[in-house]
Amino acid sequence: MADEPLVKQLSSLRSLLEEVDTRLARAPVAPPGLEELKQSVDTLRTNMWAILSAGHGALAPVRIERLKLSRAIDGIRAISAALASRAGSPLHPEHLVLQLLARELADQIDQLR
């Protein structure tokens, strides 16, 4: 698949995703690997959205990066709002992972300033 033209790959991928979607709708339970596929599809969708929104040209990579950052900021704001309304509810393990990543990211940004 890596050697075929991108247009053909996109068409093949679209057909494959439609087939997987149909099979998942009939599956009695979520099959192993579905979460990993979801993450890959989410990343691909975000990247495609950014590319389509940014257009082409020399500044496109900068616009793509800024669009991705804006989406991340929106997600973080949503998480922050959800945390503010939890009032005593237990945290999920992912909250702690996010906390560690946020600290690492803050340190990386500080180093680049």
Please indicate the count of domains.
Answer: 1
Oligomer: single chain
Structural class: mainly alpha
What is the H/E order?
HHHH
Outline type: flat
Rg calc: 19 Å
| Sheet with the most strands, sense and barrel status | none
Helix content: over 70%
First and last CA, distance: 41 Å
| Integer average pLDDT | 87
Quantity of strands, as a count = 0
**What percent of residues are in strands?**
under 5%
Q: pLDDT under 50 segments (min length 5)?
A: none
Number of helices: 4
Commentary on this structure:
By secondary structure, the chain is an all-alpha fold. It has one domain. Helix content is 77%, strand content 0%.
Keywords:
113 residues; mainly alpha; 4 helices; 77% helix; flat
Short description, anyone?
It contains four helices and no strands. It has 113 residues and is mainly α. The radius of gyration is 19 Å and the shape is flat.
Layout of SSEs?
Elements: H1 6-26, H2 34-54, H3 60-84, H4 93-112
